[in-house]
Amino acid sequence: MNLATLIAGRVRAQFGRPTGVLGRVVGWILASRPSNRRRNVWTVSLLNVQRHDRVLEIGFGPGIAVRQISRLAAEGYVYGLDHSEEMVRQASKRNAAAIRAGRVELRLGSVDRLPTFGELFDKALSVNAIMLAHRSIDRLEALRRVMQPGGRIAITHQPRGPGATDATAAAKGEEIAAALTRAGFSDVRLHTMRLKPAVVCAIGVNPATGIVQP
Asked: What does each C-alpha distance from 73 to 45, 47, 120, 122 come to in angstroms?
């Protein structure tokens, strides 16, 4: 492996879990790249966030979607989990006013170990953050258990890196939609945003009644 390949691999890894100096740069890129901003705002629009909604985001990155949601859920509540300390720092700075007002809470963590919540969520989302190849059903079932009956979830994916095409995006979209159905979500629908490569978002509804968090 040559030096250029090694450096490129380390940079790509930073987009999965930004840390250190490179992580700060990655956060800036994610916050300023138009395509990233568009896919976050688009995902939020598909959830139809209401003024009093409680919303959970997994993998909030620099906090773009959190900021958009908090504006829409002006009398609601946004809780975010991200496994990168750098992203928690950047997103907290970007959403400082809403955090001070008690409408946004951002924590270090992941979908694999959800905290105990006092109330269920009306909406949940994840944008290029939940990798569904391993333990996908367990993760989605865990999210469904902390959602209100009738609550909506959005899982968005845009393939990145060498070989990423509209076809690979479509295939991933079908995989996510199937995983949501297997995890117990109903009325699962797939949406596509025409970027290069395409962005896919699977939307599902929690049909259960009487759900209580374990």
From this structure: 12, 12, 15, 11
49 domain-assigned:
yes
Does residue 12 belong to any structural domain of this protein? no
Cα–Cα distance for residue pair 198/183, rounded to 1 Å = 25
Query: How far apart (Å, rounded) are the C-alpha atoms in residues 98 and 90?
Result: 14
Residue 136 within any structural domain of the chain: yes
Residue 121: CB partners within 8 Å, gap ≥ 6? 54, 55, 56, 79, 146, 147, 148, 151
Residue 125's CB is within 10 A of a number of other CB atoms, namely: 29
Total number of domains constituting the chain: 1
pTM here is 0.85
Which CATH number goes with the domain that contains 127? 3.40.50.150
The encoded tokens of residue 145 equal: 């258990």
Digit-coded pLDDT (tens) for 17-66: 555 545 555 555 665 577 889 999 999 999 999 999 999 999 999 999 99
**DSSP 8-state assignment for residue 117:** -
Please report where in the chains the tokens 């209100």 appear, as a residue. Answer: 148
